[in-house]
Amino acid sequence: MRQYIQEKILPHVLKPTRYLGNEWNVVKKEWEEAKVTMAFAFPDVYEIGMSHLGLHILYGLVNNRSEFLMERVFAPWVDMEEQLRRHKIPLFTLESYRALGDFHVLGFTLQYEMSYTNILNMLDLAGIPLKSADRQEGPLVIGGGPCALNPEPLAPFFDCFLLGDSEEMLLQLLEITARHLNEDGKFDREALLGELSLVSGIYVPGFYQLRYKPDGTIGSVDPAKEEVPPRVQRRIVQNLDEAYFPTKPLVPYMEIVHDRMMLEVMRGCTRGCRFCQAGMVYRPVRERKKDTLLKQAEELVQNTGHEEISLTSLSTADYSCVQPLTKELLNRYQDGGINVALPSLRVDAFSVDLAAEIQRVRKSGLTFAPEAGSQRMRNVINKNVTEEDLLGAVTAAFRAGWTNIKLYFMLGLPGETNDDLAAIADLAKKVLDIGRQELMAQRGRPNITVSVSSFVPKGHTPFQFEGQNPVEELRAKQQFLRGQLKGRGLKFKWHEAKLSFLEAVFARGGRKLAPVLENAWKSGCRFDSWDEHFDYAKWQTAFENAAIDPEFYANRPFDYQEVLPWDHLDAGVSKAYLIREHKRAMEEALTHDCRWDECTGCSICDRFQVENRLWGDEINVD
Amino acid sequence: MLIRMEFAKGAPLKFLSHLDLMRTFQRIFRRAALPLAYSQGFNPHPKIAFSPALPVGAASQCEYLDVELDAQMSGDEILTRMNRQLPEGLEIKKIKEVSQPADALNAIINRAEYTVYFQTKLSEAEVAQYLEELLKREEIIIEKRSKKGIKKKNIRPGIYKLNCQQETAGMCIDMVVQTGSDGNVRPEQILDFLRNECNLAITEARITRTGLYVYADGHYKTPLEVVA
To answer: Is the CB of A618 inside 8 Å of chain B's CB atoms?
Structure first.
């Protein structure tokens, strides 16, 4: 099979390297010796999927167990899809070129809503029935990752979802699956799901009955069986320092999005930005010790040969040992030509100075995310950043030799006025002026890129109750900013408003959207997050055919009392806390960070027996 | 010290681009913990230089690279360390320590030899006839697509030898063509010409580079033979 594909098919696709599957550190196991076989599926292209840390963690975790086997599959690009369909070859994994249908478990990672049509396409290419109810045999189809916390639009297509840190329960799921396999490797789906539904963190959507009110909102969500829990709790790795980390990750041949070593310095963030789903659903803050990270770095350097170490987290400057860690990494590896990179910069001079200290290469530019232009709006979203912070940060950056600065903002935030919008342009111009002054002596020219996305309300955040601005309004706001941000040294980037609208529909929507998804896929939607493939007309038809009004999900404010599609999935922060934070937003009141201050009452530590775990003895707050 | 190596790039890696291969070697050297010499300046990078790029989709029995080390290390030691880090499809065949300053591989290599296997209904004699006619031409004009549009190029001066032989694996053409910084002829260009101009049905072509040479004064020498 491998030879057939490599001789007959790969010469005809644009990037054959995507499908080789013989990368350094690849794990190829004897199929017959594995008790349970699993395929990890990333519903986007190789370059994006291989940059995802979660893949490397689970790949190592599962393959370290002799009785289990995990292989990988990514969404085939359209040229490869065409070849597979023409040659009638079912979608296969990269390690063994085996059809997905041959595996016991097929796990999709759900990273963003706009990858959902690719999931259906991959199931179809594999010859697996799309709906759980139609699968007499074939793999158990499971999903994990952030979108598993509101997976309802995908509910009929999946057998179960893993909520939270998958490394906490995936092995357990495979062990249970192993027990359910009969001699010829088949299992009784209903019986297996019955047992899985009792495992904390595993959600079986088919075991819940939904009732709707006449107005289309949810009346109730009830377990269809006695023993099924009414709410499913997210699973949390409590001690990240002792958790498994892959130090022999796959090293790709082709250039991928994040082509470097990844050190996960911490997980979670408690700054409490009210729009940010990651900040809400990855709590509490769990750090790794400096020495643990140094040891992992040493192994990564030996096992990969990469030229850069990236310190990943939601906000690396907040890691309590960031300075001693970076210093030590530089001491050890600088002479070997290995860089250290900080992918996420905080908006303050401390972060810039740190970056200047460690990054010898200044060509790439720096990115800051003030998110809103006016102080009022930044208070609404609880982004604890002042104008002074930002101007201080960019001054430090220009002085340290950077000329390219990228600024991230959101438009359409709750309660946004024209003044708030105009403030985005004003702030960008202030940054440009500082750049001109600071770079005059060096004869450099500042380049400011203002990248503005449209606010998308997400489940499990204080802004889940907020409707998104209608598409026309988003477009008008984009046009306004476009007019304001003209001239030398300024570049304005924005996102397609209709795509943000769709994202909001699926982020806030429920099970009734499943037929829409299926219609859209049938009419040819794939790679919706890729500009060249996004076709809103097809989506519009899909909504019409399913008799669904998308604005009901995207633009309608949700009442505090309304039962939301994800209310029966417990991400850790209580609804009472989200309501309280939403009210505080309307009052423009700030909420502090519970890492360095008292508890803010999100309820996770009490209810889940977890806590913020920091190792440093000093706090890097300016 | 400067090290010149001859290596093979086998079928499992034939789809790697030149850039992919360069990155792969950088990582092999790092994993092997060789004492690499780095360039001076703001953004130091290891000093590694390669022979002319191999077309994507082709395998090779003999590619070359120069790597500079800033500490002494025996060829055996280098080989032992590298072999532990080589992915399936790469093989280091020869290693030579270069004592005198050497000209860049890309500047001195000017001839490449390829064998091309393909499926055809024609007999050996018929294919030979076509090749003979091809070599009689003054001009073989092909169209090159570049970023600036389509350019016409005469590849006839860069073709030095075309022989064919029927073998069990299919029809085989052995070719010697120009390569390097002064000009480059790719086997695929010759095949395309045979397909388009001579209506030759050529399918499933498998291309292997079998030699890279420095041609001067009527002699072919390998890049390892020209350095002391």
So the answer is: no
